[in-house]
Design goal:
8 helices; binds zinc ion; 7-stranded antiparallel beta sheet
């Protein structure tokens, strides 16, 4: 099983219910045939050696079962029928033949970190609670994720040139006259994170929402449920939470359909607002109508943007997040391409230039 570093993968197992015997691994989308034999320890002649064919779909969370033997296999005591195919879901019971030899399936999470395979709890226990069917991680890549282009409909109101923005060097100024700061919406964050319509993912500790003013093709915010006003109040006690936020971010990227053609960064804006701590997960194309000014650009492409990993390390070693004096000044730096470092005189010119690096 090949797992991208840090990614969480699903593995499906077929588990015998009535006695203790070796569980059988069902690799994702691979056909496995079982029946009478040493693997199942079944010696009953009524059970064919090739009794059922199984094919697990770890993304969809079920196993397709096809009866190949003469005598009936059944799911929840309903006979399948020769050469027929049915779905077996977690919680359902498959009897291999004549209502005997019950099996269930279990999807387990495996975290692939540096080849070390740590098996997690069952998926049922770990599955994040989520309200709408298309919001959990499993479905993200199929449904919502491919819709992650900057939301232009929303953008028509929120991305229009924002001249109300003051010249304050802090993008996180929480003054209420600012409709839009640096791509997100300060106090509005706390409201948005509670709104099921905005939530892309949630678990016991964090919630993910799309940035309302995305500065790239993919731009998510990961927020802890616990109120943490800013990086300034982060301590060692929050280390595990910061690591979890990072892991969720990595998972989002892994599930992104464009992950192979894009690059991503995970990080925090250095100068804290009075809002809620949030981890930005942003693709590096910066292809979005909401990216409108130098402040926006520099907040994601200079040291104003603190890598999530660096923040975690800093909290580990220093017990807090230290921000260098003058960090706010970075927002005034001249425009430079973050890839080739070439100077650009205006935002439109920069955007035109970026197309070379990230063609659609
Ligand atoms: Zn921010
Ligand atoms: Zn460039």
């Amino acid at each position: 099983m090949r797992a991208p570093r840090g990614a969480i993968m699903q593995v499906c197992w077929l588990v015998r219910k009535d006695k203790c015997c070796q569980r059988i691994k069902l690799p994702h989308l691979k056909t496995v045939v079982i029946g009478r034999g040493p693997e199942t320890e079944i010696t009953d002649k009524k059970c064919s050696r090739q009794q059922v064919q199984l094919k697990a779909d770890c993304n969809k969370g079920y196993v397709k079962i096809k009866q190949m033997g003469v005598n009936p296999a059944s799911v929840d005591l309903v006979d399948i029928g020769k050469d027929e195919e049915v779905k077996l879901k977690p919680g359902q019971v498959l009897h291999l033949v004549n209502k005997l030899y019950p099996y269930t399936i279990q999807f387990l999470e495996v975290t692939g970190v540096s080849g070390a395979r740590a098996e997690g709890k069952t998926k049922a226990n770990k599955r994040p609670y989520i309200d709408s069917g298309n919001s959990n991680m499993e479905n993200m890549s199929e449904k919502s994720m491919k819709m992650e282009q900057p939301d232009l409909q929303d953008g028509s109101s929120s991305c229009k040139p924002n001249n109300t923005s003051s010249s304050s060097s802090s993008p996180h100024d929480s003054s209420s006259s600012h409709k839009e700061h640096l791509g997100h919406w300060s106090q509005g964050l706390k409201i948005s994170m509670q709104d099921p319509k905005m939530q892309v993912y949630k678990d016991e500790r964090v919630v993910v929402i799309k940035d309302k003013y995305p500065k790239a093709r993919y731009h998510w915010l990961i927020l802890p449920w616990d109120s943490i006003s800013s990086l300034k109040s982060v301590t060692k006690e929050h280390l595990e939470l910061l690591e979890h936020m990072h892991a969720v971010g990595e998972k989002l990227i892994q599930q992104c359909l464009d992950k192979d053609s894009l690059e991503f960064r995970l990080g925090y804006h250095a100068v804290p607002s009075m809002s809620q701590v949030h981890l930005h997960v942003i693709s590096q194309d910066f292809d979005s109508p909401c990216l409108k000014n130098k402040k926006h650009w520099n907040s994601f492409t200079t040291e104003y943007f603190l890598n999530s990993q660096d923040v975690i390390e800093m909290v580990e070693t220093k017990g807090k997040v230290l921000v260098k004096d003058g960090t706010s000044e970075l927002l005034k730096l001249p425009l430079r391409c973050h890839v080739c470092k070439q100077h650009q005189s205006t935002i439109p010119q920069l955007k035109e230039h970026l197309k070379k690096h990230w063609p659609k």
